[in-house]
Design goal:
The protein has three helices and no strands. With 151 residues, the chain is mainly alpha-helical.
């Protein structure tokens, strides 16, 4: 590959990385989750907010870690793919390196995304279970209040 092609590939990679981060950071803010009207009076919480330190908000931390690992994996695969493709274009009969570079860039990026889905799901489950526990506590407190009023 000549220098102009490498420059274009690098620009495309940078645009893709910026778009990935923009989508990952901005999607939840632009599309808030709709909640049922009976849950509107419960403040939004994250997992383990009563604890302090390393384990506070663990669901949110798992989701952030999943997003970061996915982004780093995609960036790493694309960089390795560019390096392999560039090396393959410089040597004679380097078609196999070019194909390997493209495979690493595309298949590796997709594998990085698939690998992060599990960790993100764990973080989401932790947040939802903490929210459900808080809602159950609120319902139990209301039930006890009603029982005390009737006595």
């Amino acid at each position: 590959m000549d220098s102009a092609t490498i420059f274009i590939v690098v620009i495309v990679v940078i645009v893709l990385v910026i778009a990935t981060f923009a989508l990952a950071r901005g999607y939840d803010k632009k599309h808030p989750k709709k909640e049922a009207s009976n849950q509107a009076d419960i403040e939004p919480i994250t997992a383990c907010t009563e604890e302090n330190g390393m384990w506070a908000n663990i669901g949110s931390k798992c989701k952030t870690l999943a997003s970061a690992l996915c982004a780093l994996g995609i960036i790493g695969c694309i960089i390795c793919g560019i390096i392999l493709t560039a090396r393959g274009s410089k040597i004679r009969d380097g078609e196999s390196l070019i194909i390997a570079g493209l495979a690493v860039a595309f298949v590796g990026s997709f594998a990085s995304y698939l690998g992060s889905i599990g960790l993100y799901a764990i973080g989401e489950a932790a947040e939802k279970s903490a929210y459900a526990a808080k809602y159950i506590e609120k319902l139990e407190a209301e039930k006890k209040e009603k029982e005390n009023k009737t006595e």
